[in-house]
Write a structure and sequence with these properties.
It is elongated, with a radius of gyration of 26 Å. Helix 2 packs across helix 4, helix 3 runs antiparallel to helix 4 and helix 6 crosses helix 12. Strands 1-2-3 form a 3-stranded antiparallel beta sheet, with no helix packed on it. 55% of the residues lie in helices and 4% in strands. It folds into 2 domains: 84 residues, Orthogonal Bundle (DNA polymerase, domain 1), CATH 1.10.150; 185 residues, Intergrase catalytic core (hpI Integrase, Chain A, Orthogonal Bundle). The chain is mainly α and 313 residues long. It has 14 helices and 3 strands.
């Protein structure tokens, strides 16, 4: 059972000095320091509630017990992991500063965070979303191309808005995406995505939004423009996706990353091999892509249990 104290105890001076050291010597950001302070305060409250008055009164078993209490309290695995990292960092600092003779957190394992399963849309939901863009005005042509390319290629939203004209080859139906760490990969463009891109890049699409004079060279080279003639930002593209998602009732289910998940999951559903999907998505490790194989398998089992007459006998 979790131990929750009543009054809020002051943090020990050792903790304040550790936080100052993180700021001055390690250059931790203010937001990171604020999160570490909250985690340190949680740990200190736990100790005080258990009758401790000094950080030195802690051994490895105590930290293990603290972890168990955090988990019993229903905290998210990410929160528990960060809390343990904070406690280990604090005690490592105290030992290095020779304020403690031994480190009680040195051999404490950081709890793993379970890999989250991507929530892909159903194929019918994707069809409904893509059909929601109607009209031939420039913004509609752009929005249709955004949705088709995100789903049709599986590129990240940052890769999409970072596309320059020279990176798109409509004749060969290929584009060059620059992923994490500026790693470049060549991605095929499907027929419908290529058609949407061609419509957008023509005079009635991008040409109609292009200004008479470009403010920046980067804007002139951008594939996707905002209505002021500048390169579309990540936030701008996100709002495009979210707007059409809300219009067709997908609401919180939809984000640009969900379209990426859906691309990968649907490819595996239709027989793609995992190495091809890894290359398409630009995953450095096959283990990242393997998450999708479980999604595809779970969907297969769910469909089987739903329709086979002897699946639940």
């Amino acid at each position: 059972m979790s131990r929750v104290p009543g009054d809020e105890p002051l943090l020990p001076l050792d903790v304040e000095e550790w936080l100052s050291w993180l700021a001055a010597e390690k250059g931790r950001a203010p937001s990171t320091l604020a999160a570490y302070r909250r985690d340190a305060r949680r740990f200190w409250r736990w100790l005080v509630a258990d009758g401790r008055s000094r950080l030195a009164e802690v051994d490895e078993a105590d930290i293990e017990s603290y972890i168990a209490d955090l988990q019993d309290a229903g905290l998210a695995p990410e929160t528990v992991k960060r809390s343990v990292v904070v406690v280990r960092s604090l005690y490592r600092f105290l030992v290095e500063e020779e304020r403690l003779a031994s480190d009680p957190g040195a051999d404490v394992a950081v709890p793993p965070v379970p890999a989250g399963l991507p929530k892909a849309l159903d194929e019918d939901e994707v069809t409904t979303l893509l059909a929601a863009v109607v009209g031939d005005e420039p913004v509609a042509r752009r929005d249709r191309a955004i949705l088709e390319v995100l789903y049709g290629t599986g590129v990240r939203i940052s890769e999409l808005v970072g596309l320059s004209l020279g990176a798109v080859d409509l004749e060969s139906r290929l584009l060059r995406a620059f992923g994490k760490g500026s790693k470049e990969r060549v991605v095929p463009i499907g027929r419908l995505a290529a058609r949407a891109l061609e419509d957008w890049l023509g005079p009635a699409g991008r040409g109609a939004l292009a200004p008479s004079r470009w403010r920046r060279r980067d804007d002139a080279e951008a594939v996707f423009l905002n209505q002021r003639g500048g390169r579309l930002t990540r936030q701008g593209a996100w709002l495009v996706v979210k707007g059409y998602g809300d219009a067709v009732g997908l609401g919180e289910k939809l984000s640009p990353h969900v379209l990426r998940h859906s691309c990968a999951t649907h490819m595996l559903d239709h027989g793609a091999d995992i190495r091809s999907v890894q290359t398409l998505l630009g995953h450095a490790s096959i283990s990242t892509t393997q998450v999708y194989t479980k999604v595809a398998t779970d969907r297969l089992f769910a469909a089987y249990r739903a329709v086979h007459p002897r699946a639940t006998l």
